[in-house]
Amino acid sequence: DVQLQASGGGLVQPGGSLRLSCAASGFVFSDYTMSWFRQAPGKRPEWVSSIGRSGGAPISADSVKGRFTASRDNAKNTVYLQMDSLKPEDTAVYYCTRQSDYASRGQGTLVTVSS
Fold first, then answer.
1. Alpha carbon 28 to chain centroid, angstroms
2. 41-80 confidence digits (pLDDT tens)
3. Is the CB of residue 91 less than 8 Å from the CB of residue 76?
4. pLDDT tens, 53-62?
5. What angle do CA 1, 45, 86 make, to 5 degrees?
6. Of 1, 19, 77, 108, which one has the fewest beta carbons inside 10 Å?
7. pLDDT of residue 57
8. Phi, psi at residue 6, to the nearest 5°?
9. For residue 72, how far is the Cα from the chain centroid?
């Protein structure tokens, strides 16, 4: 079974930073692009970022470009999302997925940006 578990969320002030982690198991991690999505209360899921199998040249949504950076460690079967210059509108539950398959998401982690 594909298992994905995100962690690292919390309460942070506007302008602050957080680093999310997502541990993967049940598949050959290095064979897949990995993605991050988020879902704010009452809103549809939003794609945030994707990173290729080798970790080079991640791509990001315009809403987070220049502030969020995805990375991965294939030896640890883990994908990361470094989030800087956080804004209140970044408040959401964040999930990682295998490729861009939102249905593959596992446990998410809540990020709350508020003063």
1. 19
2. 999 999 999 999 998 889 999 999 999 999 999 999 999 9
3. no
4. 998 889 999 9
5. 110
6. 1
7. 82
8. -90, 150
9. 11
Q: What span, in angstroms and rounded, lies between the C-alpha atoms of 35 and 12? A: 23
How is residue 24 written in tokens?
Answer: 């993967």
72 CB-near residues (< 8 Å, 6+ apart): 34, 51, 55, 78, 79, 80
- Written as six digits, the tokens of 47 are 């794609």
- In three-state form (DSSP H/G/I as H, E/B as E, the rest C), the secondary structure along the chain is CCEEEEECCEEECCCCCEEEEEEEECCCHHHCCEEEEEECCCCCCEEEEEECCCCCCCEECCCCCCCEEEEEECCCCEEEEEECCCCHHHCEEEEEEECCCHHHCCECEEEEECC
